[in-house]
Amino acid sequence: MRIFIGTILLRLGIAFALLYPAVMSFVNPDKWTALLPPVLTALIAPKNLLMILAGYNLLFAILILVKPDPGWAICGILFVTFIALAVLGYRDLDLVYQNISVGLATLALGLFGKTRG
Fold this sequence. Notes:
It contains 6 helices and no strands. By secondary structure, the chain is mainly alpha-helical. The N and C termini lie close together (6 Å). The relative contact order is 0.17.
């Protein structure tokens, strides 16, 4: 039962970390484009990159919330994403700490497995 509750809390935390920037990037895109890593904005226009990342975040938030077992594939992709964002966003330590924390929570969700009680 504890693992079940812990897994639900991990799912909610990870989903919130994905949904908030996705929704807010539509509400205030200028604020969020300023947070994008320069190495990525040199390759893709900031507004386009923001919309791509928002779609990515929405997709994975939904998968984390609705799949009974998110599996290693989803958790692995998200873990790599959050760690990559931490490395690419090294100039903003607040984002680095947040991304490492959520990345580790995602890895823990992969270890817990299914959420059925």
